[in-house]
Amino acid sequence: MDRADFLRVQARFVPADDLPALSERQRASDERLTPSATRSTPPAARAPSQLDEFLMPSEAHFRVADMAALGWNEREVFGQIEMTAKPPPTAD
Prior knowledge:
Helix content: 40-55%
Oligomer: single chain
Order of helices and strands: HHHH
Structural class: mainly alpha
C-alpha cells in the first residue's frame, strides 16, 4: 500500500461508537483475513498473526526511519497527538 492508498483508506474510516461495535468489526475483519491466510501457506510453516500491534505516541522515535522510507511522518499519519502524561524523571 502506498501513501495515496493509505490516505484513501484513512479518509473512509469511521470510528466505532462503542466496544461491542468495535468487537464486531474486528471479528468480521478476522473472518475475512483467516481464509486467505490459511490458503497461502501450510499451517506448520505459518507464524501466528500479529493482531495486537499498538503504536504509542511515546515510542515515535522507534518508527521514524521506517515511516520516512515510506514518505510518511507522524503528523500526516496520526495528526497532532498531545501527550497527557509527563515522561518519567531522569536520574541526575
